[in-house]
């Protein structure tokens, strides 16, 4: 299923960003910290928006916005993968706290996506938004 592939890609990208991000905005990984903070904010915004979605149209809009965020972030994360290849293997101690926060917000976003998508599954806009989310590469 394409959603599973997309989810793996998002989690992988997120993990790399997380690995890059927790030095508080300074030091070697400052650009990665900024990117991870953006990813955490995208996760948190998505969860809040989906939790208050009263109908399929609102859910579809939230899913579409979230997908757009990660399409942009994904490209930036790929750039960081090349810049910091060491992060794919080990998390430096200075990045562990932000990695944990990112993982937490990512899990919340996935859980929210799955539960709300099921509620509004009959809505054509939700179906289209989910397809767009799955198509992120």
Got a strand count? 0
Instruction: State the end-to-end CA separation.
Output: 14 Å
The biggest beta sheet is recorded as: none
Our Rg estimate from Cα atoms comes to 15 Å
Task: Summarize the amount of helix as a percent range.
Answer: over 70%
Strand residues, percent: under 5%
Low-confidence segments, ≥5 residues, pLDDT <50? 1-14, 16-25
Name the helix and strand elements from N-terminus to C-terminus, one letter apiece.
HHHHH
Estimated structural class: mainly alpha
Looking at the structure, what is the overall shape? elongated
Topology:
Elements: H1 2-21, H2 30-51, H3 56-83, H4 96-119, H5 124-134
What does this structure look like?
By secondary structure, the chain is mostly helical. It has one domain (2-134). The protein is built from 5 helices and no strands. The chain has helices at residues 2-21, 30-51, 56-83, 96-119, 124-134. The longest helix has 28 residues, at 56-83. Residues 1-14 and 16-25 have low confidence and may be disordered.
What keyword list fits this structure?
single chain, 137 residues, mainly alpha, 5 helices
Short structural summary:
The chain is mostly helical and 137 residues long.
